[in-house]
Design a protein that fits this description.
- By secondary structure, the chain is mostly beta strands.
- It contains one helix and 17 strands.
- The strands form four sheets. The chain has a seven-stranded antiparallel sheet, with no helix packed on it. The protein has a six-stranded antiparallel sheet with strand order 15-16-12-13-14-17, with no helix packed on it. A two-stranded antiparallel sheet has the order 2-3.
C-alpha cells in the first residue's frame, strides 16, 4: 500500500503521547491533557514512502513530526476524534510540511528548509537572569542550504525573534526554525 503524495508512518513505541515517566520502576502519568503539545509523541517510523518518491528518506527511517500528527481532538459535541493525518489502526499520512528531521537511531538530518538550534545557557544577568541566552544558540542540525553558506554543526549562531519552535531531540531542548531565521554566525 502506497500513497500518491504522502508518507505512511506510525508512532514510535506505538503511543500517541509521551506522558509517563518511570521512577524506580513505577510508571507515573505526568500529564493527563491531550491538548498539551509538549507531551505529544513526535517520533514516527516510515512504513511506506510516496509513489515515485526518490528522496533520501526510506522505509524504516524515523521522522521528527509536527505535534498535531498523532494527537486526539474533541469535536463540537465533545467526542474524541483523531486528526486529519489519521488513516487506520496506528497508521498516519503525513506530507512534506509535517516533518522536520529524518534518520535512524537518533542520527538526524535536517529536512528541506528546517534546521535545529540548541539554546545556550545564559552567562550574565543582573536582576532576572534568563536561563538561556536570547536569540543565540548552537547549530545542531543545519540543512543543506546552511551548509552551503558555511554553517556547520557546532557553530554558534544568532537567530531572528519568534522563530523558535521548541522540541526535545535526543533528550536535549532544541528550537526548530526555518533557515532564513539564522542571521549571524558568531
Amino acid at each position: 500500500m502506497k500513497s500518491p503524495y504522502q508518507f505512511i508512518v506510525k508512532p514510535i513505541n506505538g503511543t500517541r503521547y509521551n506522558n509517563t515517566k518511570s521512577i524506580s520502576g513505577v510508571d507515573f502519568i505526568v500529564n493527563t491533557s491531550e491538548e498539551d503539545y509538549r507531551f505529544s509523541n513526535r517520533i514516527a517510523e516510515v512504513i511506506e514512502t510516496p509513489v515515485n518518491y526518490s528522496g533520501p528518506i526510506s522505509k524504516g527511517d524515523q521522522l521528527v513530526v509536527h505535534h498535531n500528527v498523532f494527537k486526539f481532538y474533541n469535536d463540537m459535541k465533545g467526542r474524541r476524534k483523531s486528526g486529519k493525518s489519521f488513516f487506520r489502526d496506528d497508521l498516519f499520512f503525513i506530507d512534506h510540511e509535517q516533518f522536520f528531521l529524518y534518520g535512524k537511531d537518533g542520527n538526524w538530518k535536517a529536512y528541506d528548509r528546517y534546521c535545529f538550534v540548541k539554546p545556550i545557557l545564559s552567562s550574565e544577568g543582573y536582576l532576572d537572569k534568563p536561563k538561556f541566552e536570547p536569540l543565540t544558540g548552537e547549530m545542531v542540525y543545519p540543512n543543506d542550504y546552511l551548509k552551503s553558506k558555511g554553517i556547520s554543526a557546532g557553530d554558534l549562531v544568532c537567530f531572528a525573534p519568534d522563530g523558535e519552535y521548541e522540541f526535545e531531540i535526543n533528550g536535549q531542548k532544541m528550537y526548530r526554525m526555518f533557515d532564513h531565521y539564522i542571521t549571524i554566525k558568531l
